Amino acid sequence: GQCIMVCPTGALMARDNVEQARELLEDEEVITVVQFAPAVRATLGDAFGLLPGTNVEKRIITGLKMMGANYILDTNFSADMVIMEEGTELLGRLNDPQAKLPMFTSCCPAWINYVEQHIPELLDHISSTRSPQAVMGSMVKTWFAEKIGQDSSKIRMISIMPCTAKKVEAARPQLAKDGVPDTDLVLTVRELARLFQSRGIDLKTIPDGEFDTPFMSQGTGAAVIFGKSGGVAEAAARTLYHVLTGGEVNSIPFHAAKNPHAFKEAELELGGKTLRIGVVYGLANAHEVARQVLDGTSSYDFIEVMTCPGGCVNGGGTFRKRGKYLNFTEQRFEALEKADENCVYRQSHNSPMVQQAYREFFGEPNSHKAHKLLHTTYDNRKKEPAVPSIREVWQKIKLG
Ligand code: SF4
């Protein structure tokens, strides 16, 4: 027969994050704020039998409201904030002969963990700007709390993300205020599907909803492409183009990379300088590109790294056909590209909500307040092996 272990007090029953999210959303004592990442809108529909690449942004809003969320915000907003901070940081480095270049993007936490644990020599090259998830959490517990006239201790921030690495990121001590994490709970796309299904919410049949706060709920076309490999680099380049030339562009001409470890490259002639941008995915490729940087053989000024092939639309917490990895990439890319084209504003600096945040709260990008709330620090977590390997011992004997 079956052997079932029973814990009489229930203390051993681990509650999963879906159950925790449901409890938070139904708790009337707290104010729940939910954000969802760019890639989520292009990947959740698969769980409900919608065509791959169906953009379900507006149905996610309805579903979350049905679950009891008090406020729904868009990670696209904080992605635009990231571009303002990271772009300004890059310009500062380009103008400072002492600064470390190239600069790497920082929004993929699996990449950050890898650098901290395996190539800490590279840490000074990583942008100090927090990821969109972390920027949103920090702003919700400060500016947003002020805007809705509530104490931040009453707010619970839930974010819907494409991977479990974002759960690890949310637990970083650097992303907490007085020991309280800015992001209280993270669900993956697959967990959000289970959350909806647990209350019988079918994405296929529910109507569209609309974001309902006039702040922090809207992003530009530059932000929504964060979900695909190359999107962050492109978004940053659109804003750098404006800062350095005064003009506006809706897209940046990337081409297939000459560097065998990169996916795409672009060279931009800006204000008498050539800015070289590289786009890389996969840790094996990123490791090689990092080596080139540390050896002094890299030609790039700015490098985007995403751990997942194709970027967050292929995150480990999204849906895929059994055994296949890159199956829906094309349709998901198209969904985000179409969303970009349909946006009124295509560049982060033109977002009225971003402009409002700087006007009312931060002053300007990289201001003292912005540094405190929108930037972070990294740790060298490389572990030296406690016992020398047999190979090292053998080499010593040979050398001696
Ligand atoms: Fe997560 Fe992959 Fe996106 Fe990195 S690239 S943030 S690991 S989904």
TrEMBL record:
Q: Which residues form the signal peptide?
A: none
Decide whether keyword Metal-binding is in the record: yes
Transmembrane regions: none
Keywords, A to Z, come to:
4Fe-4S, Iron, Iron-sulfur, Metal-binding, Repeat
Question: What GO molecular function annotations does the UniProt record carry, in alphabetical order?
Answer: 4 iron, 4 sulfur cluster binding; ferredoxin hydrogenase activity; iron ion binding
Answer yes or no on keyword Iron.
Answer: yes
Q: Which family does it belong to?
A: Belongs to the complex I 75 kDa subunit family.
Q: What is this protein called?
A: 2Fe-2S iron-sulfur cluster binding domain-containing protein
Provenance organism: Parasutterella muris
Full protein stretch here: 198 to 597 of 597
